Amino acid sequence: MGINLRDQGGPSLRYIIIDVETTGLAPNRGDRVIEVGALMLVNNEVAEEFHSLIYIHEQIPFRVQLVHGISNEMLNGWPEADEVYPRLKRFVGKSTIVAHNAQFDMKFLRYEFSCLGLELNNPYKCTLQLSRKRLPHLPNHRLETVYCHVTGKNPEGRSHRALGDARMAAEIWKGLTSLKSS
User: Fold this and answer.
1) Residues designated as active site
2) End-to-end distance of the chain based on CA atoms, in angstroms?
3) What CATH number corresponds to the domain at position 36?
């Protein structure tokens, strides 16, 4: 039985903020997750991080490499899916998952898990949907735009890498969930 962090019957204080980088947009057409980054937030503080590139046998299309900068050569020496996803499942536990454009990440993760006979039925929240609701005045709701607005800072490092994007999504989640609902 895992740690149960509850605030006198209130919502769980433990969230897993997650982001994936992929070879395309559709797992049902053979696209794969090639990087996963996740943070465990406990009481709005980062308690632990999870990160891995994932070795695949398929070629990463060049147009996709231009987005995240991940090449097949970079995946050499990293574990394959059957090593990464059981570890990720343990890391996530029964926590609520949070992601920016969560439907995309969950679609890919559920597909990858199912290929290994695993399930990922955790509830999830979407910072993209939440930002559209709470910040309708923004010119767009891309991760970087919302991050800059919520934190007042420019993103550090390269965007479109899983752990860095998960860190930005965590700051967005903390900022947006502290705002009063309108």
Assistant:
1) 160
2) 37
3) 3.30.420.10
